[in-house]
Each structure stands twice: as C-alpha cells, then as structure tokens.
C-alpha cells in the first residue's frame, strides 16, 4: 500500500476521527477528578486586601461624611446588642458579629450601592467582620480606624494642639470641636470680643449688582 | 487567571480593539466557509446543505469543552463569564421573528454583512430591511417594552435548569451534536442535490 492510499483512507475517516476526539474530550471532563473551588476572592488578592490600609476610614473622615449626611453610607455596629443600646453612632444599625452572615443582614453587606462602615470599640471586631466579608467577595466594606475609642478621643474629646502647631492642626481641632457640637457634645467656647478701640474702620463692602438675566424667549414652535 | 480583561491582565481600553480584530476574523471565516451565500445558509431548512448546523454546533461544542478544560486548569474562572439574561417571552417572540426572517431572507444578521462585503445584492436588500427593523423597534420600544422585559428569569444556564452537572451536560451536548451530524448527512444523501 502506498502512503498516498493510506492518506486517502485516513481522509475518508476524518469525520469519524474528529467526532471521537470530541466525545473523548467530553468524557474526559466527566471523568476528571473534581477540584474543589473556593468561593470568594483568591488567596493572593485576599492577602493583598488584608495588608492594605485602604479599608480604614478615619474618625475625622467619617464625621465629615456624617455631618454632610452622605446618603451612600451605612454605619454598621458589630458589637453586642447591649453595647449597641448603651451607645452607638447616630444612624448606625446593629449587626453583632455572630449574626454577621444572617439572611436578614446579608442584603446590607453584599451589595454594590452603599459604603458599609463597620465599627466596634476598637478595630478588632470590625476587622474580623471585614475579613469575613472580604473573603466572601463583598464590596465596599470599610472599617472605622480605632473604632469608638478613637471616635471619643478625636471627635468628642480632641486634644488642643500646641501653640507651635501649624494651621492644619488648628483647623482639624476646630473641625473636631464643631463636629462634637453637631453630635450634641461639647460647648461653645466664646471667643473674646475683638478690641474695637484701635480697630481700623471696616472697609466698605461692595456688593456687585446682580446682572439681569435675559428672559428666555417664550412661545415659539 | 482569566477572563483576561475583567481580571486586569489586558487593560480595558483594549476591549474594542480586540472586538474589532475578532470581528474581522469572524467575518473572514464566515465568508471563507461560504456563509455569504443565502442559498447555502437556507439549505439547512430545505435539507440540501447542513453546513450551518455543523459549523455552529461544532463551534459551540469546541468552545464549551475548551472553556471547561481551561476552568479545570485554573486558566479561567467560569463563574466570571457573562451569562445573557433570559427574558422568556422576548426570547420566544424574537426567535420566531428571527427564524422567519432567516428563512425568508436567507441571511442572519452577521452573514448578511459578510454578503454585503462581497457585494451581494440580496444581502444589501436584507441589510436595509434589517436597519428598518432596528429603526422600527427603537421607535416602538415604549410599546414593546412590557414584552421586552417580561418574565426575566435571571441568568440560568442549562445545567441550572436541569439540575445536573455541567460536565454531564457537555457530554450529552457533544453526543447530540454527533447524532445531529450523522442524521443530517443521511438526510442530505436522500435529498436531491441542489447546484448553487
């Protein structure tokens, strides 16, 4: 038999051969030992996320967002119910760590719309909650850095910066005092009245006359 | 690892460039396999040419087997792939209209453009009709919207609906494909040959 003849014979059988390759590959898929796949994020990404500080939000930033009534944020208190009833941040919901993956609370945590800020007395429990959530691939989970302890020491009881501190430190201090007032704690410090005797006369305020807006043409087609 | 673009292995800006390149390749293969001829395409309905059935069945079988092997080898995460949502009534109505158009006009949307590219007059007429259809649909969208969005079943796959493992389903699909090829060859042998 010449090789030419063999090749022709092979060619007449090519469809059967290809079909059997297809079936063999499909059978292979069925017979291969199944590999267990873990849900959620990959280990490498998880380690990256854990090492990154991106999840932390400082109490100043949080206070700023609360004062501005940021509608895209949900505060989640992961402490126990007792502690939650004693004190919590305004507008926070209580999801104790043991209820973290309940059916009722999951819709709050596993979504793409709101930023979830987790907090506890310190970082610790909030971080645990964050770890669970991040491992399962939930987005937009944040942790209040330092927890409520830090909240107390920065917002409710800010330390006065030394007189040599720069302007930013004083601005921050003023912001914190104002924030404490906003949240119902702290007192107005009356600023001493300015000395009017030697004060130069106030420059006359010039208010620019508002330009008249051209009225839009009415009617038409 | 994969899919490459959602996992950032290829920057998302390349999306359109890659789509265009794949589009060129797809159009070329369509033309090269004779799918720019409406007579060849509708042959599957009259039983004298089953190239359409064979090509698309083979493509689906090869793709699904390849994807699941890649998933097995961890080159690709199959759960990250996009699954077209199922709108039951829209799919039924769309399938009916598409089938009628395919049978009457002799082209499906992609192949009609391949036909236009080589200057087939029937393909040009078909494409004009296609554009009129798109225009009419867009204009009537508010009327058609209830049908268009009715009974959204989410993103079910066949494996979900039947409740069997996807691997068994793939095996069944491959066997179905081979049976279909065999039967179509038998039918073709019986039907009178059409020269086109």
Write the layout of secondary structure elements.
The complex is a heterodimer of chains A (221) and B (196).
Chain A lengths: L2 H10 L1 H18 L11 H9 L4 E2 L1 H9 L5 E5 L3 H6 L6 E2 L11 H4 L5 E5 L3 H13 L5 E4 L2 H10 L10 H16 L39
Helix pairs in contact in A: 4-9
Chain B lengths: L13 H19 L5 H9 L4 H22 L15 H18 L3 H9 L3 H19 L1 H8 L9 H5 L3 H25 L6
Helix pairs in contact in B: 1-5, 3-9, 5-6
Descriptive key words:
heterodimer; A: 221 residues; alpha/beta; 5-stranded parallel beta sheet; 9 helices; 5 strands; 43% helix; 8% strand; B: 196 residues; mainly alpha
Could you walk me through the main structural features you see in this protein, from its secondary elements to its overall organization?
The complex is a heterodimer of chains A (221) and B (196). Chain A has 221 residues and is α/β, with parallel strands linked by helices. Chain A has a domain at 43-153: 3-Layer(aba) Sandwich (Oxidized Rhodanese, domain 1). Chain A has nine helices and five strands. Chain A has helices spanning 3-12, 14-31, 43-51, 59-67, 81-86, 106-109, 123-135, 147-156, 167-182; strands spanning 56-57, 73-77, 93-94, 115-119, 141-144. A five-stranded parallel β-sheet of chain A has the order 1-5-4-2-3. In chain A, strand 2, helix 5 (81-86) and strand 3 (93-94) form a beta-alpha-beta unit. In chain A, helix 4 crosses helix 9. The longest helix of chain A is centred in the first third of the chain and has 18 residues, at 14-31. The model of chain A has no long low-confidence stretch (mean pLDDT 81). Chain B is globular and about 50 Å long. Chain B is mostly helical and 196 residues long. Chain B has helices at residues 14-32, 38-46, 51-72, 88-105, 109-117, 121-139, 141-148, 158-162, 166-190. In chain B, helix 1 crosses helix 5 (109-117), helix 3 runs antiparallel to helix 9 and helix 5 (109-117) packs across helix 6. Chain B has one domain.
């Amino acid at each position: 038999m010449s090789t030419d003849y063999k090749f022709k014979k092979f060619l007449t059988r090519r469809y059967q051969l290809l079909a059997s390759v297809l079936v063999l590959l499909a059978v292979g898929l069925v017979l291969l030992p199944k590999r267990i796949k873990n849900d959620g994020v990959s280990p490498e990404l998880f380690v990256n996320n854990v090492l990154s500080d991106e999840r932390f939000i400082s109490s100043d930033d949080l206070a700023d967002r609360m004062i501005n009534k940021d509608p895209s944020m949900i505060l989640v208190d992961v402490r126990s119910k007792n502690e939650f009833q004693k004190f919590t941040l305004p507008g926070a919901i209580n999801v104790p760590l043991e209820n973290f993956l309940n059916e009722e609370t999951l819709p709050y945590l596993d979504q793409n719309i709101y930023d979830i800020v987790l907090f506890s007395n310190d970082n610790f429990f909030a971080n645990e909650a964050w770890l669970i959530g991040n491992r399962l691939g939930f987005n937009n989970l944040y942790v209040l850095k330092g927890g409520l302890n830090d909240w107390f020491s920065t917002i409710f009881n800010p330390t006065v910066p030394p007189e040599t501190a720069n302007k930013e430190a004083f601005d921050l201090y003023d912001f914190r005092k104002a924030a404490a007032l906003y949240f119902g704690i702290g007192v107005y410090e009356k600023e001493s009245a300015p000395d009017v005797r030697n004060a130069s006369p106030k420059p006359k305020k010039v208010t620019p006359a508002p330009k008249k807006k051209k009225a839009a043409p009415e009617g038409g087609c | 690892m994969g899919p490459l673009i959602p996992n950032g292995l290829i920057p998302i800006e390349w999306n359109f460039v890659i789509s265009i390149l794949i589009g060129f390749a797809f159009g070329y293969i369509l033309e090269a396999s004779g799918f720019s001829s409406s007579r060849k395409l509708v042959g599957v309905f009259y039983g004298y040419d089953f190239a359409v059935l064979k090509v698309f069945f083979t493509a689906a079988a090869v793709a699904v087997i390849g994807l699941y092997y890649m998933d097995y080898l961890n080159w690709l995460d199959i759960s990250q792939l996009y699954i077209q949502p199922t709108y039951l009534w829209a799919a039924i109505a769309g399938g009916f209209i598409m089938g009628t158009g395919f049978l009457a006009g002799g082209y499906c949307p992609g192949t009609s453009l391949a036909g236009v590219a080589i200057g087939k007059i029937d393909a040009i007429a078909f494409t004009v009709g296609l554009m009129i259809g798109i225009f009419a649909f867009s204009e009537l969208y508010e009327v058609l919207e209830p049908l268009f969005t009715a009974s959204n079943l989410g993103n079910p796959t066949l494996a979900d609906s039947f409740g069997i493992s996807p691997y068994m389903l793939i095996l069944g699909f491959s066997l179905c494909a081979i049976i279909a090829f065999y039967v179509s060859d038998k039918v073709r042998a019986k039907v009178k040959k059409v020269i086109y």
